[in-house]
Amino acid sequence: MIKTINLTKKFGSLVAVDNLNLEIPGGEIFGFLGPNGAGKTTTVKLLTGLLKPDSGKMFINGYDLEKDILKVKETVGLLPEHPFLYPKLTGKEYLFFLVHLYQLDLLVNKRVLDLLEMFRLSDFSDELIETYSLGMRQKLILAGIILREPKVLLLDEPLVGLDPQTAKLVKEIFLKFAAQGKTVFLCTHILEIAEKLCHRIGIIQQGKLIALGTIEQLRRQAEVDGNLEDIFFRLTEKDNYPK
């Protein structure tokens, strides 16, 4: 569902993403980890067409991003690091706006109300978004993504600001998406969540993919018998990543 070939992005002399090669099938929750500035957010922006690569190729759902960007956007749900919402809309108006923007079936209208209830936003659905807390805004954005039923989810820190109950709900939603054969691409700093949720994990360091595999495969690569936190710190030690 997601494939990159020698994907490279530079900002002046800084190589933010350096010959990245990934192949992520449907039905997988893929964790993309790395220190701050490693290239995670840049990769997400490349995969959504918000940035253009300097070289390399990207494919999502079989579509070449360079040639079929509109097709890609139809099938991808994006939660960026700093999402934008229209502050002068109410929560309900925002979701109905998405229904019309993406020309969704009018039967989806009932799902708007169901999603507001599911994310415990019903009592605030007629309030302006500018009055929402960070967690409420995050929930509204996730509701909007789910409303569209995308085949690929690209998520940059999706659990930020969520209370424990909602975080549990969102993790269950990700598992359901994967069970339906969809792909979840998850960037997070919360290693415990990545370890419990992700089928495979990629670790990026200074733009280079330094590790890729299941937890057990990463343990063997790191030569440690510990959890993902132990693995991560071992692999990202300066003496261990490729030059």
Structural class: alpha/beta
Q: Can you identify the CATH superfamily of the domain at 2-81 and 152-235?
A: P-loop containing nucleotide triphosphate hydrolases
CATH architecture type of the domain at 2-81 and 152-235 = 3-Layer(aba) Sandwich
Beta strands, count: 10
Query: Mean of residue pLDDT?
Result: 91
In a nutshell, what does this entry contain?
The protein is of the alpha/beta class. The protein is 37% helix and 25% strand.
Describe the structure.
This protein is of the alpha/beta class and 243 residues long. The protein has a domain at 2-81 and 152-235: Rossmann fold (3-Layer(aba) Sandwich), CATH 3.40.50. It contains nine helices and ten strands. Strand 9 and strand 10 form a beta hairpin. The model has no long low-confidence stretch (mean pLDDT 91).
